[in-house]
Write a structure and sequence with these properties.
With about 375 residues, the protein is an alpha/beta fold. It has 2 domains: about 230 residues, 3-Layer(aba) Sandwich (Aspartate Aminotransferase, domain 2); about 120 residues, Aspartate Aminotransferase, domain 1, CATH 3.90.1150. It is built from 12 helices and 14 strands. The strands form 4 sheets. A 7-stranded mixed β-sheet has the order 1-9-8-5-4-2-3, with helices on both faces. A 3-stranded antiparallel β-sheet has the order 12-13-14, with helices on one face. Helix 2 packs across helix 8.
């Protein structure tokens, strides 16, 4: 039955004060440089590198383009081992980079790429591993690093959910050869649309900067085949107003998380996937797993919550091996990734953003507990 309650969405973008945005945009127009590495772009790049604790960082128009060109910058060929439990953009970026994705199964606890399943997928065609920090749960970076070292493979992390997260006290962008961050409006930090790469190998930033700007090494020197993937100064200006809001937003999301955690503690059939706290957490999403011992299925719960104006998301669904263009080809069979397939049928991302009140969070939690 429909209710008159206010709708609660999965997330709500951080929106700076209009007057602050207007003042920043006025700086852009006054500079006369709207794109092509203008003043706002340069300042945001430096501010984000400092915030994320990385030395080399470059901005892109969106995270998908960032990952495509990051893979290009690594000079990869052949096959890339990745996770089937991710947003389609991860796999699409691999394909657009001219590479073949090969799927290894995920750890059934973290839903991240399972290192124990990676080595069996390595062939003479394998050139890299592309793991995803799912929901801000960190991958087993130590194990992945060891595998990559033993087999001379590159590692490019999809850190779309990992903004501001630390792993064993280290910034998430300090692992692997590079990490991609997404700055889409749904993310904790955003530039409306946007993305970035952080690098841990000398020379990669220079290559990526050229790739995203038509391959230009100088105004009259085309050094490589690139594309136009630059972030413009309007996006960067907006992001510079969002960045100072992130610390307060993280604190507010921690408050909402604590309410959810208390309500779901001991509820049979519900497991909280995003369990990390403090600086080790990204606070990007609050995701639960609906097990068979819960009162209703995941899909039934989602429909019933929507009737109460509580909107959730099956994040991620479907599993990537179910994409029709794979059709069970070797390396892409869903039957070979049972943990990922099971996760895709059980996860649910709940409303989670700082503007939620305690009453909002309790309303969501109580609506779920009533179904147990």
């Amino acid at each position: 039955m429909q209710t008159k309650e206010k709708p609660l969405m999965v997330t709500k973008p951080l929106t700076p004060a209009p007057e602050h945005v207007a003042a920043r945009i006025a700086e852009v127009t006054a500079s006369g440089q709207l794109t092509n590495n203008g003043p706002q772009h340069q300042k945001l790049e430096a501010e984000l590198a400092a915030y994320l604790g990385v030395k080399d960082l470059t901005l892109f128009a969106n995270g998908t383009l960032a990952l495509i060109l990051g893979l290009k910058a690594l000079g990869l060929k052949g096959e890339v081992i990745t996770t089937p439990f991710t947003f389609p953009a991860t796999v699409q970026a691999i394909e657009w980079a001219g590479l073949t994705p090969v799927f290894a199964d995920v750890d059934p606890v973290t839903f991240n790429l399972d290192p124990a399943k990676i080595e069996a997928k390595i062939t003479e065609k394998t050139s890299a591993i592309v793991p995803v920090h799912v929901y801000g749960n960190p991958c087993d970076t130590a194990a992945i690093t060891a595998i990559a070292r033993d087999h001379d493979l590159r590692v490019a992390y999809d850190g779309a959910h990992a903004f501001g997260m630390t792993i064993d006290g280290r910034p998430s962008g300090s692992f692997g050869d590079l990490t991609m961050f997404s700055f889409h409006a749904t993310k904790l930090f955003h530039t409306v649309e946007g993305g970035a790469l952080s690098f841990n190998r000398p020379g990669l930033k220079t290559t990526a900067d050229q790739l995203k700007n038509f391959g230009l090494a100088a105004p009259e020197q085309v050094a490589m085949s690139g594309m136009n993937a630059k972030m413009n100064d309007v996006q960067a200006a907006f992001g510079r107003e969002v960045l100072p809001l992130v610390a307060a937003e993280r604190a507010e999301r921690q408050r909402i998380k604590a309410i959810y955690d208390e309500f779901f503690a001991g509820v049979r059939g519900i497991r909280t996937i995003t369990a990390r706290e403090g600086e080790a957490a990204s606070y990007q999403y609050y995701v639960i797993e609906i097990g068979g011992s819960f009162g209703v299925s995941r899909d039934e719960l989602q429909r019933e919550l929507e009737a109460e104006q509580i909107f959730t998301r099956k994040y991620f669904y479907p599993v990537c091996t179910a994409f029709p263009w794979y059709e069970g080809k070797p390396g892409t069979r869903t039957a070979d990734v049972p943990a990922a397939a099971a996760a895709a049928e059980q996860v649910l991302a709940l409303p989670f953003y700082g503007a939620m009140t305690d009453a909002d969070a309790k309303r969501v939690a109580e609506a779920i507990r009533r179904r147990q």
